[in-house]
Design goal:
By secondary structure, the protein is mainly β. It contains 1 helix and 8 strands. The N terminus is likely disordered.
């Protein structure tokens, strides 16, 4: 005979919408900063007994908008969406995550970049019958190739943890993916253009 096992995920029965988090207001003048945008699709592999017994391999992506400081650091908001199937029933759990990301980057060679980052914020998990809202964090490292001063493509890996009120994570997993980074220089170009006009006198003499 066979035994049916029912898998459940501990989520709140209270329906709620993910609040809009105002994470940062940049006080620096736009003319004095460099902006960067990173889009990273990833595979999400559950790890730990709490996660592997409930979830299977999923996928997701996160987007970063950041201000680059001193040519070595970056800070800005991050939004991510992750979808993880349940281990057994044909159902999935979606994680919508907002957070603040801080990273440091370095160019050991002119066209090679390395970056390490950390993110902390709030998430909402959405299943078939309910939602759950709590905190999350992520660590991520990547190495990439600079095709131009503004475009970099990288490969990276990291760890993500969606916490819950009781001990142990609701979901924890290893992330692996590729990212594309675009840098925008908002500093105005320096320099000036001087135009001079020499006019002989008189141009149209009225009197000889």
């Amino acid at each position: 005979c066979t035994r049916k096992v029912r898998y459940t995920v501990a989520v709140s029965e209270k329906k709620c919408l993910l609040p809009v988090l105002l994470l940062i207001i940049f006080s620096l003048p736009l003319s004095a900063i460099d902006l960067g945008f990173r889009l990273t699709p990833v595979a999400s592999i559950p790890t730990g007994s709490e996660s592997t017994s409930v979830f299977t391999v999923g996928a997701g992506a996160f987007l970063n908008a950041e201000v680059e400081l001193m040519g070595r650091f970056a800070v800005g908001p991050e939004i991510g969406v992750y979808v993880n199937p349940l281990n057994g029933p044909s159902s999935t759990v979606q994680f919508v995550a907002l957070g603040m990301n801080v990273s440091t980057f370095y160019f050991p060679f002119s066209r090679v970049s390395v970056r390490a980052s950390a993110t902390f914020g709030a998430y909402e998990s959405i299943s078939e019958f309910s939602t759950y809202l709590h905190m999350w964090w992520k660590g991520y490292a990547e190495a990439g190739f600079r095709f131009s001063p503004r475009v970099t493509v990288s490969a990276g890996a990291g760890y993500i943890n969606f916490m819950q009120k009781k001990p142990g994570p609701l979901y924890a997993g290893i992330l692996a993916g590729l990212s594309g980074h675009i840098a925008l220089d908002t500093k105005p170009s320096e320099g000036s253009i001087t135009v001079s006009l020499e006019q002989p006198d008189p141009v149209f003499p009225l009197f000889a």
